[in-house]
Write a structure and sequence with these properties.
The protein is mainly alpha-helical. It has three domains: 174 residues, no CATH class; 104 residues, Orthogonal Bundle (TerB-like); 134 residues, Serine Threonine Protein Phosphatase 5, Tetratricopeptide repeat (Alpha Horseshoe). Helices cover 66% and strands 5% of the residues. The chain has a two-stranded antiparallel sheet. A hairpin with a 2-residue loop joins strand 1 and strand 2. Helix 8 packs antiparallel against helix 9. The chain is elongated, with a radius of gyration of 36 Å. The N and C termini lie far apart (106 Å). About 6% of the residues have low confidence.
Length: 454
C-alpha cells in the first residue's frame, strides 16, 4: 500500500510539474531559428509524423456552444461545457469507481471537475486495491481538465438527458429552434384548456394569459398572448418537452380549467387525453381527475344549497341576495322568537342563513367579475356595444363596483355618450375618491362634453 501511494504521488508530482512548465511556455513565441534548430535535430520525416500524431492526440479547440439551459450550479449563465470525469474513491471497506458527467457554464463546470479531481487525490488510496488504479484515473482527469472541452461531450450529455441537442443550440441572435417549439406547446396546451368546454370564458382566458406571460419570460406582450389564445392552437410536439416541462404545462392546464370554479366532463376528458400524450401513468391521471371531480361537485352543491336556504335562484344579483337575506334574517332571528323551545332552532337557522349569504355573495361577485372581464376583452377589440352590454350585466350583479363603473364610463366615452359616461365616472369617484386614473378620465370626459355643447 505504501509503495503504491509513493509511486502515485511521484507520478502526479512529475505530471503536474510538466504541465506547469507547458502552461508557462504556452504563450511564449518561438523564433524561426529555434524552430529550425529543433527540426534539424530530428531524423528525416520524423517531424511530419510527430505533428500528425499530436493532432490526433490533442482535442481540437472547438468554439464552445451555448445551449438554452441555465447552469445548474450558478443558475445565471447558460450551459456551455461538459466534462467526463473518472471516479476512484476508497473508504476503508468500500471502493467506489466509475465515471461521472459534469455539466454547467465554463467556470462552474471547471470548478466542479477540479473538486472531483481533488477528492480522487485525497480518497483514492484507502481501500483495496490500495490505489493501484488511482494514478491512472488522476492522470485522465488532469488531461480532461487541462485540455479544451469538446462539444461532442456536451452533445452526449444532453442526448442522454432525453433532449434534442440541436433544438437547444443558441444562434448568434439569441434564438434557438426549441424556443419556438416550446412557445407553440405553451399556446397549444393553454388554448386547449380554455376551449375544452367549447366556449371562451374570460376568467380562463385571463388566467391562461398570465401563465403564458410568465412562462415566456415577458418576451411577448399580454395583448398578443390574449389574441393567440382566442383560438385553438396547433398540435403538440411532445418530443421537445422534458418531463419537468410536461408537468409544468399539465399543472398550468389544470389551473386554467379551474379558473371558472367548475369542471365539466369535457374538460376532464381533455386533461385525461393531455396526460396520456405527456406519457403520465394512468394512476397519476386518475388521481388528478378524481380530485377535480370532488372539488367541482362540492362547489356546485354549495351554491345550490345556499340558494335554497335564501329561497332564490343561483343567478340572483347582489341586490336580490341582500333582500332575501334580510327577509330570512327577520324571520328566523332569535330575538324575534317568543317560544324558548325554538330558540336553538332559530340560532341554527341564522348560522345557515349567514353561511348561505356569504357563499352567494362571493359567487355573485365572481360572476360579475367574469362578465366584466369579458367586457374588458371586447373593449380591447373595440367592440364597444358588446362590451357595454357585458358591463351593464356585470353592474346588475354588483352595482357598486367602482372599477366596473369606470370601465363602463370608458366604453360610453368611446361611443361619444359623454353625459352617461360622466355619471359613471362620478359614481365611481364617490366609491373610490382617491383614484387618479378615474379622475383623469372624468376631466377628459367633461372637456369633451363642453366641446360638444359649444
Amino acid at each position: 500500500m505504501i509503495t503504491a501511494i509513493v509511486v502515485g504521488t511521484i507520478l502526479i508530482t512529475v505530471f503536474v510539474i510538466v504541465l506547469i512548465q507547458l502552461t508557462k511556455n504556452a504563450n511564449k513565441p518561438v523564433t524561426r531559428r529555434e524552430r529550425r534548430d529543433f527540426e534539424d535535430s530530428l531524423p528525416h520525416g520524423l517531424m511530419s509524423k510527430l505533428v500528425s500524431r499530436l493532432k490526433n492526440l490533442v482535442p481540437r479547440n472547438d468554439e464552445l456552444t451555448e445551449i438554452a439551459i441555465l447552469c445548474p450550479t450558478c443558475g445565471i449563465k447558460l450551459v456551455s461545457t461538459a466534462y467526463k470525469i473518472s471516479i476512484v474513491r476508497g473508504y476503508i471497506l468500500v471502493f467506489q469507481h466509475g465515471e461521472k458527467y459534469i455539466l454547467g457554464c465554463k467556470r462552474c463546470a471547471l470548478k466542479a471537475a477540479i473538486l472531483e479531481f481533488a477528492e480522487n487525490l485525497l480518497f483514492g488510496w484507502w481501500c483495496i486495491p490500495w490505489g493501484a488504479t488511482t494514478p491512472l484515473a488522476l492522470i485522465q482527469n488532469l488531461f480532461t481538465i487541462l485540455t479544451p472541452p469538446r462539444n461532442s461531450t456536451l452533445r452526449k450529455v444532453v442526448t442522454l438527458s432525453g433532449l434534442n441537442f440541436n433544438d437547444l443550440v443558441i444562434d448568434s441572435d439569441g434564438s434557438y429552434l426549441g424556443k419556438q417549439t416550446y412557445q407553440d406547446n405553451i399556446f397549444t396546451v393553454l388554448s386547449g384548456a380554455i376551449w375544452a368546454d367549447g366556449s371562451l370564458d374570460e376568467r380562463e382566458l385571463r388566467t391562461a394569459s398570465e401563465i403564458a406571460y410568465e412562462l415566456l419570460n415577458h418576451n411577448i406582450s399580454m395583448s398578443e398572448i390574449r389574441q393567440r389564445l382566442h383560438k385553438r392552437y396547433g398540435s403538440l410536439e411532445i418530443r421537445a418537452l422534458s418531463w419537468d416541462e410536461r408537468l409544468l404545462l399539465y399543472r398550468a392546464a389544470i389551473t386554467v380549467i379551474c379558473a371558472d370554479n367548475k369542471v365539466i366532463p369535457r374538460e376532464l376528458e381533455y386533461l385525461k387525453q393531455l396526460g396520456i400524450q405527456f406519457g403520465f401513468t394512468a394512476d397519476f391521471i386518475n388521481e388528478i381527475l378524481d380530485s377535480l371531480k370532488d372539488d367541482s361537485s362540492n362547489a356546485d352543491n354549495e351554491q345550490e344549497q345556499a340558494a335554497k336556504v335564501l329561497g332564490i335562484k343561483q343567478e340572483a344579483s347582489l341586490d336580490e341576495i341582500k333582500r332575501a337575506y334580510r327577509q330570512q334574517a327577520l324571520r328566523y332571528h332569535p330575538d324575534r322568537v317568543n317560544d324558548k323551545s325554538k330558540t336553538q332552532r332559530a340560532h341554527d337557522m341564522m348560522c345557515e342563513i349567514n353561511r348561505a349569504y356569504s357563499i352567494l355573495v362571493k359567487g355573485a361577485i365572481e360572476k360579475a367579475s367574469q362578465v366584466a372581464n369579458r367586457g374588458d376583452t371586447l373593449f380591447e377589440l373595440e367592440r364597444y356595444e358588446e362590451a357595454l352590454r357585458d358591463y351593464n350585466r356585470s353592474l346588475e350583479l354588483s352595482p357598486n363596483d367602482p372599477l366596473i363603473l369606470a370601465n363602463r364610463g370608458d366604453t360610453l366615452f368611446e361611443l361619444e355618450r359623454y353625459e352617461e359616461a360622466l355619471c359613471d365616472y362620478n359614481r365611481s369617484l364617490e366609491l373610490e375618491p382617491d383614484n387618479p386614473e378615474i379622475r383623469e378620465s372624468q376631466e377628459l370626459c367633461l372637456e369633451s362634453l363642453m366641446e360638444v355643447k359649444q
